[in-house]
Amino acid sequence: MHFLVQTKPYPDEALESYLLRLARNNSYDGYSELADILWQWLAEQDHELEGALPLELNKVDVYHARQASSFRI
Predict the structure, then answer these.
(1) The pTM is what?
(2) Is the residue at 4 inside a domain?
């Protein structure tokens, strides 16, 4: 998947902040619209990763996913 605007994360930026900037810089209405498109792309590309990306920003928690989830992104 390629975005129109290649947004690079800041060295000290939280994942949630980066995802919001990525969505805004690529003219999505918000994270949920971006997440829906990414979810569909993951479903088409790799069925094992389908559902690995939360559709709600408040559920994006890398530390928790690393500790408790079977999904590893």
Answers:
(1) 0.66
(2) no
